[in-house]
Amino acid sequence: EMIVVVVLFVVVLCVQRPILCVAGDVGILYEVWHTFAAQAMQEIGRVGGRQLTTELVIRSNGSLTLQDVYGPFNVSSDIYNVQPQLGFYCLYRQRPNDPYPPLSDCPNITQTTTAHAKLLVDAQVDYVAVDITNWPSMSSVTDAQVIRPTEVLFEEWLALRKTGTATPLIAPWICSPAGSNTWEYVLQNIYNVGTYDDLIYTQEGKKVMFIPFNNNCQDDNVTSYIENNFGRNDVTVVNMWALFGEPTYKQDVWGFFSPCTTADGSFTTSMVGEGDCNQFSSSDSKGDVVEISASGGYMLSQCSLPFASPGHMRGLTMQRLFKKILATPPPHVFISSFNEHIGGRQAPAYNADIAFNMGLPNDPQRNSVWVDTYGSEFSRDIEPTVEGGDIIYKTLVSCVALYKAGKTCADSPTSQCCTTADKEVWNNVWSMQQENGNQDRLLTQDVGEKNALTKQGWKEICHVINGPSVFCVDTSNHDGRDGPFMLYNFNSTTTRPLYRCLDDATKNHFFSISSNCENMGHMESVLGYMATTRGGEMLRSIRRCRLPNNVFSHSLDIPCLSGQADSQIYGFVR
How far apart (Å, rounded) are the C-alpha atoms in residues 333 and 398? Predict the structure, then answer.
């Protein structure tokens, strides 16, 4: 009877959802690159130092700097943005009988890989794509940073499988331009030894190797060599990259993350005030959808710059990205990412005064900005962390469960993937300036009022960094301190209201943290709620600035312009 019931259920599901009768597979980007950073943190711990992360430095509100992470201990490495709940782990282990091991073994490898396997299996993730995109050629650094840890991941998960413990499958994602050889090492020492055949991710009977689809990492001849695999012809290459146009998606190129889009198909970081996410999907030559990606977050520019990344937003970003996946379920879903935690830094791509690491306005390293992951909020990562908790992981578990079951939020509105009251907690705030008269300034959280004002002689003060679509963007403006921001739309013990006021005497607007508007006028509206401390979701300070003509403006994360009266910091905004 049980078999009959199951069969009937599947038949009904196929009739109702003809696009996909059997759930496809789910992969996730997985990092093993923590060797040097983790060992640096472990050394600090051994000498009794405080193990600092970027998020902890931000939360210190200037009492700590990024120099304090490694400087006092005479070590140098990538800085962790957050601390994983499993600690500062890494997967490097010396090879057996290696007479000259370059490094000591990472501690607790089995505990780490076992915990990761359980987290991923519980989330119904079928395979991990190990990120080797920065290491096209073999060297001692490549080996210690990513190759030996990848081998150890295979070893550990194979051992778990022998005990009957489930693990995901594994596939590498390797930068493979002409003249590279990391791909060759992986084929010869992992794919072709036979030991790991049941642990390698396959499609249609062939072992999969992902290749970054960009000019620096992909070469048609190398792809042919990989698929030939020294005459075995048992490998298929899947091209994957991000931030490319819709025509490339139609060439069967996967997105390892795919941003939300606007009605005209432009990428956006705006999660509030926009329509459905509707990210691009990858399709084959027949036009059939092959893959759609979702992520804990993403970036359109350097993610530590304002509005260059949407951030986690308590799972709102992932929820919006999964809506398309659940509505039109593809055979393959790819998630970014599980556990980056560290990442590259570079000079700001913009010349604006606010183009620095958010929340670190006075830090000596503020202009060495993070690209892919920043703090606990502006990250693609899903692994539970000390500073960020596990809300994004739980959202992933819920969303994948719906996908695997062939359901949408209409079927399960109380699912973590579908609830909105816990995620839609934000107000956009537009900055407006009167173009004539006394050039009054005001803030509004009402898009209708913003639109009406622009027809009445007011102009919107634009953001200065590409990313948002609900705010105008003007990258030629090299200031940005008086631009748009976001507030919470609810009050709590860790927030305070921000009021919009009108000066009864001058008829100029200003904002205040006092509901009586400091007896300077009357309150017109509550704009929203600021955080009372810096960090997490709200990194930028806000000050009130009084211009010489008694017009009030604001300044985000940096002092008011010279010649303007500079108030204290009122709170912290997004």
Answer: 14
Report the C-alpha gap between 418 and 413 in whole angstroms: 5
- What is the CB-side half-sphere exposure of residue 61 using CA atoms within 13 A? 11
Q: Is the pLDDT of residue 172 over 70?
A: yes
- Is residue 328 within 8 A of residue 289, CB to CB? The reply is yes
Rounded distance between C-alpha atoms, residue 128 and residue 173, angstroms: 10
Spatial CA neighbour of 93 closest among 134, 153, 165:
153
Alpha-carbon gap, residue 203 to 55, rounded angstroms? 39
Q: Which amino acid is present at 20?
A: L
CB 79 within 8 A of CB 87: no
The CA distance from 154 to 139, in Å, is 20
Nearest-angstrom CA–CA distance, 182 and 175: 8
Instruction: Measure CA 421 to chain center.
Output: 22
Going 318 to 321 to 324 to 330, the CA torsion angle's sign is negative
Of 112, 69, 105, 59, which is closest to residue 89 (Cα–Cα)?
A: 112
Look up tokens 């990313």; give the residue: 467
Hey, what are 396's tokens?
A: 């992933």
Alpha-carbon 500 to chain mean position = 33
Residue 346, Cβ neighbours under 10 Å: how many?
A: 11
Residues 6+ apart with CB under 8 A from 43: 73, 75
Question: CA-to-CA distance for 113 and 89, rounded, in angstroms?
Answer: 10
Burial class (CB in 10 A: 0-12, 13-18, 19+), 474: middle
Distances (CA, A) of 380 to 291, 312, 358, 396, 477: 18, 8, 17, 12, 29
The DSSP annotation for 449-493 comes to HHHHHHTTTEEEPPBSSS--SSS-B-TT-S--TTS-EEEESS--T
pTM (2 decimals)? 0.94
Burial label, 433 (beta-carbon count in 10 A; 0-12, 13-18, 19+): middle
Cα distance between residue 469 and residue 263, in whole Å: 10
Q: What is the pLDDT of residues 12-70, one digit of tens each?
A: 333 333 334 457 999 999 999 999 999 999 999 999 999 999 999 999 999 999 999 99
E strand segments, 108-241: 127-132, 169-174, 202-203, 206-212, 235-241
Is the alpha carbon torsion for 370, 125, 120, 260 positive or negative?
A: positive
CA distance 165 to 130: 20
Smallest CA-to-CA distance from 412 within 425, 401, 396, 397 is with 401
DSSP 64: S
Lowest mean pLDDT: which of 4-18, 296-310, 378-392, 441-455? 4-18
Beta strands in 53-180 (DSSP E): 127-132, 169-174
Rounded to whole angstroms, the Cα distance separating 436 from 476 reads: 23
- In terms of Cα–Cα distance, which of 32, 40, 130, 144 is closest to 90? 32
